[in-house]
Amino acid sequence: MNPADKRIGVVGLGIMGSAISKHLLRRGYPVSGFDVDKQRLDEFASAGGDARTCAADVAENSDIVIASLPSAAALRVITDELKEAKAPGLVLVETSTLDAADKIVARDELSDVGVVVLDCPLSGTGAQARDGDLVAFVSGDEQATDDVAPVLETFCRETVRLGEFGAGTTTKLIANLLVAVHTFAAAEALTLADRAGLRLEQIISALAGSAADSRMLQVRGPVIARRSWQEPSMRLELFLKDLALITSFAQSVDAQLPLFTTTQEYFRQAADAGLGSYDSAAVAALLRDDLE
User: Which residues form the active site (predicted)?
Assistant: First the structure.
């Protein structure tokens, strides 16, 4: 695909959306974008993007729109705007971590105006997004998936096709359960190593590739070691929203999650302690306080 042949829109220019837009611009795609935060929109324009006034404006000037949104309420607003936009044939790639039921509503309503919605949550942190190290869990219309595949390759190292619409979100919730548990386990293990007087960077390196390794140990372990969670790649308060979705989904299928439930409580306590705007790795700060 010649990038110039496809007009791409990005709605939601936060940590993930801004990283995605930069990859697209570097690859040569014409990219329009919108965010309710003017500073984010200005930064997007400074990077070479075409800043637009609303989501409908983005849709009317795009062939594919990538949505990276913080909440179901935001998706509701975007859905209403796109229903009024003149954008038949548009493909909306919904990458947010939301309840599948909310995405199904958006899919059904937008299909009436000729817009195809793909359920395509992304697995990875903000830092991984900046490195193009994301995994896309795509579900929905096969032809639309074929059409967007070259675009996803711009910022994802892998695209996994999961079939029926909604399977992407289910997979992402399961992935996030593991991310939460592994992040907390890394925090606990590194707290023990710190108390034992070991060099945390050396421990992380020593465990790399061993039976004890995990992606979160390698991604968030250095953040924990440096205590640099003030610059979030995933804000703890936003991560709690994802954890609540996991709890709701588990209840809907009558699944017991004792380890996850304990982990979730520590993340909640970290947010209550004022760490909500920090990276989710900041749960380690709470754990260290508990052990003092």
Answer: 172
**Strands in 125-283 per DSSP E:** 134-138, 156-161
169-291 in CATH: which number? 1.10.1040.10
**DSSP characters over 70-109:** S-HHHHHHHHHHHHHS--TT-EEEE-S---HHHHHHHHHH
The pLDDT of residue 171 is 98
Kindly report the CATH class assigned to 3-164: alpha beta
Rounded distance between C-alpha atoms, residue 99 and residue 224, angstroms? 30
Domain ranges in the chain are: 3-164, 169-291
In the annotation, is 172 catalytic? yes
- Looking at beta carbons, which pairs linking 23-31 to residues 24 or more positions away fall under 8 Å? 23/132, 23/154, 23/155, 24/151, 24/154, 24/155, 25/49, 27/3, 27/154, 28/3, 28/4, 29/3, 29/4, 29/151, 29/154, 30/3, 30/4
pLDDT tens for 141-167 read 999 999 999 999 999 999 999 999 999
Alpha carbon distance 113, 183 (integer Å): 42
Pairing relation of β-strands 134-138 and 122-123? antiparallel
The mean predicted confidence, pLDDT, of the chain is 95
Instruction: Provide the token pair at 1.
Output: 């695909």
Nearest 5°: the CA angle 157, 159, 165 is 150
- Structure token digits, residue 10: 């990005």
Instruction: Considering the candidates 6, 83, 172, 241, report the single residue annotated as catalytic.
Output: 172
Residues shown for the chain: 292
